[in-house]
């Protein structure tokens, strides 16, 4: 059986995304979707990814089950908002133009990636008040794009979830959103032979990539690895956005690729700032001879985790 360029690309990007997910606990969909959308529409790609994520998210939840009692009350409003959002988003996916859905996907994902890259933190006091509308927005985003990691990462980092709680909260939300979305797709007739036919291409990459990522992360700095992967994601999304703007004739070629160039320049600026801050911290530690692990004059890490725990 011959393999076309789309299948080869899907094998490569899902292997890379699964490796990142195995290393950081997050990033599978947010890395896979922007690249795969160049070859496949959301209507074909989403059902296969959602089925994979039902299993992947269930595994994350089981591993972090001890922290569930600490977080379920905090995430319950978000879970309640997910269901109507998913129903609405699934309907949009089943009826809207594939090219316009691609455009929406890129426009939603890109600013969230750049906000994470910039290290934005905006703690919200009325956590319960924003839970249901936030959950509805996440549900729409996930059911249309299979991506919900960036907004969830921003919220949970802002709200001070420690590592175990962070993973458990993500596990709860992602199990609900992937399971409900898979069910909504079935009821709306979104599944197709073309979509489910992608599973044999995706599943082996996931099975291989996750243990590779777990091995890699034990041998390098997790935050540096995460930040480099985020840059890759931003560049790919920027390229996809430029291409779909040209395909929809909203911009002409090569003018449309100015968007891609702008994204690259923004990300390089943020990346430079990230590594410069790392160098400054290292210099302070060296100059004042602060022992490793001592509070000293080093900037202290917040009790939250980086957005390392999202499987999409």
Walk me through the topology.
Layout: H1 5-24, H2 28-36, H3 42-63, H4 68-95, H5 98-117, H6 127-145, H7 149-158, H8 163-187, H9 193-196, H10 199-217, H11 222-247, H12 257-288
Helix pairs in contact: 1-2, 1-10, 2-11, 3-8, 4-6, 4-8, 5-7, 5-11, 11-12
Keywords: Cell membrane, Membrane, Transmembrane, Transmembrane helix, Transport
Main location: membrane
InterPro entries: TM_pro_TauE-like, TSUP
Summarize the structure.
By secondary structure, the protein is an all-alpha fold. The protein has twelve helices and no strands.
Question: What is the residue-mean pLDDT, rounded to a whole number?
Answer: 81
**In one word, what is the shape?**
globular
Specify the structural class: mainly alpha
Unreliably modeled segments: 281-312
* Helical content class: over 70%
| Total DSSP helices | 12
- How many strands appear in the DSSP assignment? 0
Query: H/E element string?
Result: HHHHHHHHHHHH
Distance between the termini: 30 Å
Biggest sheet details: none
Estimated radius of gyration: 20 Å
How much of the sequence is in beta strands? under 5%
Describe the structure.
This protein has a domain at 5-220. The protein has twelve helices and no strands. The protein has helices at residues 5-24, 28-36, 42-63, 68-95, 98-117, 127-145, 149-158, 163-187, 193-196, 199-217, 222-247, 257-288. The protein starts with a helix and ends in a 24-residue tail after the last helix. Residues 281-312 have low confidence and may be disordered. It holds the Pfam family TauE.
Defining traits:
12 helices, globular, disordered C terminus, mainly alpha, 312 residues
């Amino acid at each position: 059986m011959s393999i076309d360029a789309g299948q080869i690309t899907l094998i490569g990007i899902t292997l890379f995304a699964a490796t990142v997910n195995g290393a950081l606990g997050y990033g599978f969909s947010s890395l896979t979707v922007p690249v795969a959308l160049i070859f496949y529409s959301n209507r074909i790609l989403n059902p296969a990814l959602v089925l994979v994520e039902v299993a992947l998210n269930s595994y994350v939840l089981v591993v972090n089950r001890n922290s569930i009692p600490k977080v379920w009350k905090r995430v319950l409003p978000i879970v309640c908002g997910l269901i109507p959002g998913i129903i609405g988003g699934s309907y949009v996916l089943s009826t809207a133009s594939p090219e316009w859905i691609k455009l929406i996907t890129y426009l939603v994902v890109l600013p969230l990636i750049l906000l994470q890259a910039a290290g934005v933190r905006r703690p919200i006091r009325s956590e319960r008040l924003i839970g249901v509308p936030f959950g509805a927005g996440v549900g729409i985003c996930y059911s249309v794009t299979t991506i919900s990691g960036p907004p969830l990462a921003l919220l949970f980092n802002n709200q001070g979830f420690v590592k175990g709680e962070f993973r458990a909260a993500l596990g709860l939300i992602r199990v609900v959103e992937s399971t409900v979305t898979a069910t909504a797709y079935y009821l709306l007739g979104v599944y197709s032979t073309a979509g489910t036919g992608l599973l044999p291409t995706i599943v082996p990459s996931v099975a291989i990539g996750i243990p590779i990522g777990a091995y890699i992360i034990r041998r390098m700095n997790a935050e540096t690895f995460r930040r480099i992967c985020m840059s890759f994601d931003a560049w790919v999304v920027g390229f996809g956005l430029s291409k779909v703007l040209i395909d929809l004739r909203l911009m002409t070629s090569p003018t449309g690729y100015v968007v891609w160039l702008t994204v690259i320049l923004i990300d390089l600026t943020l990346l430079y700032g990230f590594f410069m801050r790392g160098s400054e911290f290292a210099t302070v530690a060296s100059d004042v001879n602060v022992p490793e692990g001592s509070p000293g004059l080093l900037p202290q890490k917040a009790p939250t985790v980086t957005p390392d725990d999202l499987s999409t």
